[in-house]
Amino acid sequence: MDRSQKSDAVAELNAVFNEVGVVVVTRNLGLSVAQSTDLRGKMRDAGASYKVAKNRLAALALKDTQYEGLEELLSGPTALGYSEDPVAAAKAAVEFAKSNDKLEIVGGSMGGQMLDEAGIKALASMPSLDELRGTIIGLVNAPATKIAQVVNAPANKLARVFGAYGAKEAA
């Protein structure tokens, strides 16, 4: 990698760090190419990204972002998972680490808040942004559904009574 490619990589990572809501630092303890591809696919499905970057370049890219404290976690064979949704990257990384002992969660950061391994696991147990939206919509729609049922109930009962009288007279 020459100097211009390195500066491009640092600029790209810096732009990513300025846009995302969470960064998860993982340590690769011997993942095969197939396992790494599987992890990237699971991250992509969750709405997150997973990138292996040189620690020195990643540390340079962290400068002047809210994730500056992550520099101390960048040692050894590390990789970064990140997403705009504060839960997506953490959830995908933790789920993959449960089934594969060659991936270790080192820590991360949500906004300016540094998180250790336990913090990332706690973050992963929270509902995602889409799940929260679905819950809120369900709570908003529940009263309207109940009102519609109450308003329609007398008409339904009246229709059944007329239907019963009609069937009685036909017999």
From TrEMBL:
<dbReference type="InterPro" id="IPR047865">
    <property type="entry name" value="Ribosomal_uL10_bac_type"/>
</dbReference>
<comment type="function">
    <text>Forms part of the ribosomal stalk, playing a central role in the interaction of the ribosome with GTP-bound translation factors.</text>
</comment>
<dbReference type="InterPro" id="IPR043141">
    <property type="entry name" value="Ribosomal_uL10-like_sf"/>
</dbReference>
<dbReference type="GO" id="GO:0006412">
    <property type="term" value="P:translation"/>
</dbReference>
<dbReference type="InterPro" id="IPR022973">
    <property type="entry name" value="Ribosomal_uL10_bac"/>
</dbReference>
<keyword id="KW-0687">Ribonucleoprotein</keyword>
<keyword id="KW-0694">RNA-binding</keyword>
<protein>
    <recommendedName>
        <fullName>Large ribosomal subunit protein uL10</fullName>
    </recommendedName>
</protein>
<dbReference type="InterPro" id="IPR002363">
    <property type="entry name" value="Ribosomal_uL10_CS_bac"/>
</dbReference>
<keyword id="KW-0689">Ribosomal protein</keyword>
<comment type="subunit">
    <text>Part of the ribosomal stalk of the 50S ribosomal subunit. The N-terminus interacts with L11 and the large rRNA to form the base of the stalk. The C-terminus forms an elongated spine to which L12 dimers bind in a sequential fashion forming a multimeric L10(L12)X complex.</text>
</comment>
<dbReference type="GO" id="GO:0015934">
    <property type="term" value="C:large ribosomal subunit"/>
</dbReference>
<dbReference type="GO" id="GO:0003735">
    <property type="term" value="F:structural constituent of ribosome"/>
</dbReference>
<dbReference type="GO" id="GO:0070180">
    <property type="term" value="F:large ribosomal subunit rRNA binding"/>
</dbReference>
<keyword id="KW-0699">rRNA-binding</keyword>
<dbReference type="InterPro" id="IPR001790">
    <property type="entry name" value="Ribosomal_uL10"/>
</dbReference>
<comment type="similarity">
    <text>Belongs to the universal ribosomal protein uL10 family.</text>
</comment>
<dbReference type="Pfam" id="PF00466">
    <property type="entry name" value="Ribosomal_L10"/>
</dbReference>
